[in-house]
Amino acid sequence: MTDLLVVAAHPAETTYLPAGTDVVLTGIGMSRAATHTTRAIVERVPDARNRGRLTVVNLGSCGGLCPGAHGIFEPSLVINRDIDAELMRAMGSDPQESINLTEMGQPGDGSVLATGDSFVAGGPVRDALEQRADLVNMEGFAVAVACREMGVGLRMVKHVSDDAGEQALDWATRVDQSARALADWWENFRSGESPA
């Protein structure tokens, strides 16, 4: 039987999960997400030989980069948007800036999630990202790296809370809708139904 561990960045994203759900809150940003996810995996399954029985379920809100993006997404690919991958390759190093989530147990819906440490709220950064990805957040890539390196499965589920433009500045109010949608997804997932 597979053990499930919910990983989220902020407590507001997990408000409506049922009592008793195993939840780890990482805090905002990639360093914290990678560190707290790794620590949680080691604490729950100290013996690396048994880690195949654990699946991390990364729940969280995100910004939608495509016009009209809304609802739940289960990305197929997550990228590190903060690294200049072509420059690194030109210098002879492979930055491994993308992770195919379908290779880690994710059904995938074809969407691409771009992760980085800066908050995206419009402007040239958002415009450039829209050419590369469908969604944007600040932890997904780091959670995926931790899971890949530790040998555990991953389900990454994101709910669009805003348009990664001016709406993003109102995240604190908008996240409640994301938390409700993510809790609904979790309930369906736990009951064995196909989450919508």
Automatic annotation (TrEMBL):
One BP annotation, GO: nucleoside metabolic process
A GO term, aspect molecular function: catalytic activity
Residue intervals of the Nucleoside phosphorylase domain: 112-170
Signal sequence, renumbered to the chain: none
Classification via Gene3D superfamilies: Nucleoside phosphorylase domain
Record-linked InterPro entries: Nucleoside_phosphorylase_d, Nucleoside_phosphorylase_sf
A Pfam entry, by short name: PNP_UDP_1
Highest taxon listed in the record's lineage: Bacteria
Descriptive protein name: Nucleosidase
Species the sequence originates in: Kocuria subflava
Organism placement in taxonomy: Bacteria, Bacillati, Actinomycetota, Actinomycetes, Micrococcales
